[in-house]
Amino acid sequence: MLSAMRIFIKVVELGSFSKAAEVLNMAPSSVARNIDSLEQDFNAVLLKRSTRQLLLTEAGELFLEGARKLVNDEETLKTSLSKRDSQPEGILRISVFEGFGRVKICPILPDFLAQYPKVKIEIDLDNQLVDLHSENVDIAIRIGNAQDSSLNARMLMANQTSLCASAKYLAQFGTPKKPEELQHHNCLLLDRDRQRTYWHFKKGNQYKKVPVQGNLTSRGGTPILEAAIHHGGIVQLSSWMMEDLIQDGSLVRCLPDWTPSLSEQSSGDIYALYRGGKHMRPVIRAFIDYLVKALKR
């Protein structure tokens, strides 16, 4: 019955018998028979089916909650009975947003792989969100916690931002003395799918919300960072992207007395998101534990 519950959970996650069948390497008719069997065994209609979509019934929602608990309990029991010190091995598939992956993750991969020679890593630097349920990804590293309550999340680091420009740009166009003056500068922007972009600033009890605009927008940070280095404007990006560039003089910090952020609350924290309960594949646990330690250095 647990295998049928797993099939039911996958159908709900993907919203389709055919998609679940493809992921589970089963025939769609076999998936349907398993769902029919569950409905017969529990004497309840779990799914409303139409040609366009599947919808959970009230009984189906209750069943889904219980099925997930039973499946997780089984996985926990199996893991508890196995050797907890088993050597991490196998393929680890990671999706990480481009800037963080390039600056923080890729440089530490060789050391991790040297520690665990039975592990192979496949990494994708992608600024698009991924669905860990339907895509072949073990760990997704993103800004912000998971909106999907079935995913686990481990905070890796706070994502504070800095406001910077090159010395040449500031010499030519002036150094802003207060946040409002940014309205008169060319600001290099992250594409956040909004009609207007605002930068936020705090200093003590003061708060400023400043509309900004510029001639270059990018979904990832690398293009606008390069533009700032080459005197194209003022940029607000994660501090971990710009620390070395500030130290070597490629960029100059602007408005150092103010704390900038990309949203009113904060610029978000960076999390590792992964599927499963408290117990997981040893390679996933090993990599996340390694990340937390490595990023504190």
UniProtKB/TrEMBL annotation:
GO terms for molecular function: DNA binding; DNA-binding transcription factor activity. Residues 1-57 form the HTH lysR-type domain. PROSITE patterns: HTH_LYSR. The keyword Zinc does not apply. CDD domains: PBP2_CrgA_like. Keywords: DNA-binding, Transcription, Transcription regulation. Belongs to the LysR transcriptional regulatory family. This is Transcriptional regulator, LysR family. It comes from Shewanella pealeana (strain ATCC 700345 / ANG-SQ1). The lineage of its organism: Bacteria, Pseudomonadati, Pseudomonadota, Gammaproteobacteria, Alteromonadales.
